[in-house]
Amino acid sequence: MRRKWQWIRNGTVLRKTKYALLGKEADQGLLFKLFIYVILIDTAYIYLNPLFFMISTMVKDAADLVDPAVNWVPRVIYLGTLQEAWVMLDYAKAFLLSTGLTLAIAASQTLLCAVAGYAFARLEFPLKTFWMFCLLLTFIVPPQLTILPMLLAASELGWINKLYPLLLPALFGHGLKGALFVIIFRQFFSTQPKDLEEAARIDGANVFKVFYKVMLPLARPAIIVVFLFSFVWNWNDSYYPAMYLINAQDVPLSLGMSKISAGIEARIAENGPTVFDEPIKMATSFLMILPPLVLYMFTQRYFVEGVERTGLVE
After folding, report:
1. How far apart are CA 138 and CA 151, in angstroms?
2. 159-213: pLDDT as tens digits
């Protein structure tokens, strides 16, 4: 009987110890989750605060803009500033031009950088290390050092105020951040098993068929990452369009926004500021960033998965 009660006491102690350990783990898990949520909320505030300020400023009327008591929430939603920015940008035409140009560049860079990345990862060719070094140089050298000879070449070919200088580098896998995209594809293809290529070669596939039939379908995560990076960076780029489209009538949204901002600054220097100067800048910026925001809303899941699978986190 005494042994039986001893077993019961031992079992009770074990259960209490087990419950105590579980409670401690639950408390640690709750504290860790709370810490993570605090970090995420702070980070989200840092990134979203300028966007909220932009939207709040562009929908204020003159009375709210000059009233120091109105900070974030306007008394009246005024859309006249947004309409004025739409007209100043010639938004419909500029949006179509920016979309067509950016999609063409992003698609070309994605496909051709995939070819180059596969070649650096899987193929053997003469001076492979040297060409990889040259690729890294194009990634390191700032564009301000190469823009002058590119401008002279475009002028000799009669391509100033045309879209050819913006499209042509992408057709050769270069363009804005092209070297980085090649490195991303090289990193992805280097991690794939070689058995897939060997099996395809045994079946009689040449190197082109191995790439397009076997390796490229596997590169969907890298394709999504590179395409989205290329789309956003070329959409926001105003440096190269400002160099080549000097006196062009139809310009992308990025260059149109820069011209409006420069015009406002020149008018302020000549005639003084007005109450709607900042709201106009905010409205043009909002119309500029709206399409990438909408695109990311629908592709964020694939983008995050692609970043994880391509090894960019490492």
Report:
1. 17
2. 898 989 999 888 888 877 888 899 889 988 888 888 888 888 888 888 888 888 8
pLDDT (tens digit per residue) in 284-299: 999 999 998 888 888 8
Amino acid, single-letter form, for residue 222? A
Residue 228 near residue 303, CB atoms below 8 Å: yes
pLDDT tens-digit profile of 118-155? Answer: 999 888 888 888 998 888 888 888 888 888 889 999 99
Say if residue 13's pLDDT is above 60: no
DSSP string, the chain: -HHHHHHHHHHHHHHHHHHHHHHHHHHHHHHHHHHHHHHHHHHHHHHHHHHHHHHHHHT--HHHHH-TT-SSS-SS---HHHHHHHHHHTHHHHHHHHHHHHHHHHHHHHHHHHHHHHHHHH---TTHHHHHHHHHHHHHS-GGGTHHHHHHHHHHTT-TTSSHHHHHHHHTT-STTHHHHHHHHHHHHHTS-THHHHHHHHTT--HHHIIIIIIHHHTHHHHHHHHHHHHHHHHH--HHHHHH-SS-SS--HHHHHHHHHHHHHHHHHHH---TTHHHHHHHHHHHHHHHHHHHHHHHHHHHHHHHHHHT---
Q: What are phi and psi of 3, to 5 degrees?
A: -65, -40
pLDDT above 90 for 86:
yes
Mean pLDDT estimate for the chain: 83
Whether the CB-CB separation of 166 and 104 falls below 8 Å is answered with no
Q: Does residue 115 contact residue 211 with C-beta atoms inside 8 Å?
A: yes
Tokens 């579980």 appear where? 22
Tokens of 36: 């993570």
